[in-house]
């Protein structure tokens, strides 16, 4: 039995390392080498967060630089950037905007949860009865929550639900606007739209797997096995590979359509009704006079 546990522990470690390095390499390639629109930087940041999620699987109680529960309380608020980055990437891709993204209001939940996590950790380390904290900060001591980490998964799930609803509404509005496009625009737009739909559905599927395998058992008090932690990472890694293959196919298809559109000869402009009937009659009369003189 111990041999099987050791095998699964090694498999989980290598899966985390393998997935983290691959996502990080893909994010670096998109960010610095792939010449594309500005909103691709959002996709690179999104993949960087997924790489962080994988690499946290390498952390345990033996190699953590600080107590592991404090470390994860500081890392978890970073995941509040995941869905905002996905939403902004889909929105900018559909609108085809190349303007740089400044600090967005969508990033505020991540900053607030990180601030609350830091306050909670400091209060627990220094004690509640020191009298050095304002009354607003000491509200944390009255929440009857043993650890801030118990509240973070619920808040993250609520935020994820909200953004998936926002993405569905975004896709629905864009689908209605596609009816007013020309055939070539609609073809390229459909390719981009299908890629974004595939990316969103993959993230939705992986989130549901994590909810039923990790989050719900955590709140019901069940012990999380190594398999429970490894399964969401395995499905996420497989989803990344499938999305990479599908994205490469869509890029190839888009390049083919753009090349075919560029090779099409430009149609001459036909000018109708430039002259009035009186001007036509005058020109006809002039031509007849020239013919008589010859």
Automatic annotation (TrEMBL):
Transmembrane residue ranges: 12-30, 42-60, 66-89, 110-128, 148-172, 193-218, 230-248
Which keywords fit this entry according to its UniProt record?
Answer: Membrane, Transmembrane, Transmembrane helix
Asked if Transmembrane helix is a keyword of the record, the answer is yes
**Name used for this protein in its record:** Uncharacterized protein
């Amino acid at each position: 039995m111990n041999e099987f546990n050791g095998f699964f522990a090694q498999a989980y470690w290598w899966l985390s390392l393998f997935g983290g390095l691959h996502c990080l390499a893909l994010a670096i390639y998109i960010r610095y080498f792939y010449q594309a629109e500005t909103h691709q930087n959002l996709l690179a940041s999104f993949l960087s967060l997924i790489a962080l999620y994988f690499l946290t699987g390498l952390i345990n109680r033996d190699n953590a630089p600080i107590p592991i529960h404090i470390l994860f309380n500081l890392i978890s608020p970073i995941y509040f950037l995941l869905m905002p980055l996905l939403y902004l990437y889909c929105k900018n891709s559909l609108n085809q905007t190349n303007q740089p993204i400044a600090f967005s209001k969508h990033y505020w939940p991540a900053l607030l949860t990180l601030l609350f996590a830091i306050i909670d950790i400091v209060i627990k380390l220094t004690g509640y009865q020191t009298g050095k904290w304002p009354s607003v900060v000491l509200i944390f001591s009255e929440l009857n929550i043993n650890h801030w980490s118990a509240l973070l998964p619920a808040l993250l799930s609520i935020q994820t639900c909200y953004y998936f609803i926002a993405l569905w509404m975004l896709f629905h509005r864009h689908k209605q606007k596609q009816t007013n496009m020309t055939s070539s625009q609609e073809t390229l737009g459909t390719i981009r739209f299908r890629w974004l739909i595939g990316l969103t559905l993959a993230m939705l599927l992986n989130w549901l797997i994590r909810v039923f395998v990790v989050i719900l058992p955590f709140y019901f008090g069940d012990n999380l096995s190594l398999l429970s932690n490894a399964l969401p990472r395995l499905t996420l890694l497989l989803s990344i590979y499938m999305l990479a293959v599908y994205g490469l196919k869509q890029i190839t298809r888009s390049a083919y359509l753009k090349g075919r559109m560029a090779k099409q000869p430009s149609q001459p402009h036909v000018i109708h009704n430039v002259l009035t009937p009186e001007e036509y009659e005058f020109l006809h009369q002039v031509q007849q006079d020239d013919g008589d003189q010859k």
